[in-house]
Amino acid sequence: MQPRGGRRGAGGEGGGHRLCCCCCFLLESMRLSALALTSSRLLSLGCRTVSPPGARDGARDGAGSGAPTALSFDKPKVELHIHLDGAIRPKTILEVAKRRKIKLPTKNDNQFLKLITCDGPTTLTEMLTKFGYFMPIVAGDRDAIRQIAYELVEDKANEKIVYFEARYSPHLLANCDVYPIPWKQSEGDLSPDEVVRLVNEGFEKGQRNFGIKVRSILSCLRHMEAWSPEVVELCKKYRKDGVVGLDLAGDESINYEPSRGHVQTYQEAVRCGIHRTVHAGEVGPPEVVREAVEILKAERIGHGYSIIKDAKLYQEILQKDIHLEACLYSSYITGACKADFSKHPVVRFMNDGANFSLSTDDPLIFNSTIHTEYNMAAKDMNFTEMQFMRMNLNAARSSFLCENKKKELLNQLRKAYGMPEEPKLDTNLNNYPCL
Ligand SMILES: [Zn+2]
């Protein structure tokens, strides 16, 4: 396999990559990406040149760096916040481009790999360009979609992730029955519905071959309200095939009020017993989190860092035991949080006994692995092994698995951690039957 997280070259892009020269074919797709980005990477960023936390001692990554690196937590783990299309193997993108005869906008492969990743904090504009470069290569291609799903399972198994939930927008990988057709693709015959089936096939095969559990979450996009009703319908249609939840991603910084279409979509999810998470409070104000919880009835929050600015809301989140899907390295790269990790909101979360866990978000773009997260937490925030174990148990009990599978997962972790089995669940997510 191609280990993700290997540093593919020294240095970043020096802040020099803009929409330019040989990227003409991508201009339109980049414009669209600004509207329809799968993750909430649409953030107000500043160019900073500080060294990445955790990288100061050369231990940012635990896999693929070519040099053995001590892992801060080498036990079974659960990951709840990762974007399928933000976690593709770079090698696969290059292979698919070659097979489909798609010309890269760079002179060679290495330049392209540098182009689609960030080695340090970057600007909003540069971040947006990343999806626009590689999504046109994999979107609309059945084999590529099956492959990226399958390979993600292998990569996560190699990171000792025993259960993960991957999210994606089916519409952004389709090339028909979607308007506008994303990434300036020509109209084809791959619908959002079939995209979900293809991803399910890849995950199914991966689960069989690598022995870990995978479920998927379908993402609505804040700027693509028209797509949302179909997203919840797909959640309902494929709930017996591994689709366990609904997500809302997109630009909370400039448009954080949930529009009526999204509200109706989330109401339908509540009505049908579809689990719900929402990207909120990453760079947006605490109000976005309040709306996510009170209006969209989110059971988990993607990121949620800004809640510490609103003491009342923060206490409510703690009291309701709402799970916070934190992504440390992502928050550093996007500028959501300051580079001084001793003051990161996650430190507050830990000290206050909040229900949270660590995830990679978009490891392709961040050139990271789950070990990046744990190494940073250990080295920059002094997290202990016991705290890591507690965090993973929180992730397991806050997962969107049905109750029986959740108990199995909790017991699997407890056994690996040397804890007595204790299937008692202290969760507000226990009303969902196994399907
Ligand atoms: Zn995300």
Automatic annotation (TrEMBL):
Signal peptide start and end residues = 1-36
One Gene Ontology biological process: T cell activation
GO terms, molecular function = adenosine deaminase activity; metal ion binding
Which cofactors does this gene product need? Zn(2+)
Report the residue ranges that make up the Adenosine deaminase domain in this protein. Answer: 76-415
Task: Tell me the compartments it is located in.
Answer: Cell membrane; Cytoplasmic vesicle lumen
Sorted keywords for this record are: Hydrolase, Metal-binding, Signal, Zinc
Keyword Ion transport tagged: no
The keyword Zinc is assigned to this record: yes
* Top-level division of the source organism's lineage: Eukaryota
Family matches, as Pfam families: A_deaminase
Q: Which InterPro entries match?
A: A/AMP_deam_AS, A_deaminase_dom, Ado/ade_deaminase, Metal_Hydrolase
- UniProt membrane topology term: Peripheral membrane protein
What family does the entry list? Belongs to the metallo-dependent hydrolases superfamily. Adenosine and AMP deaminases family.
Checking NCBIfam families in the record gives: aden_deam
What's the protein here called? Adenosine deaminase
Q: What is the lineage of its organism?
A: Eukaryota, Metazoa, Chordata, Craniata, Vertebrata
Q: Which gene holds the coding sequence for this protein?
A: LOC103180762
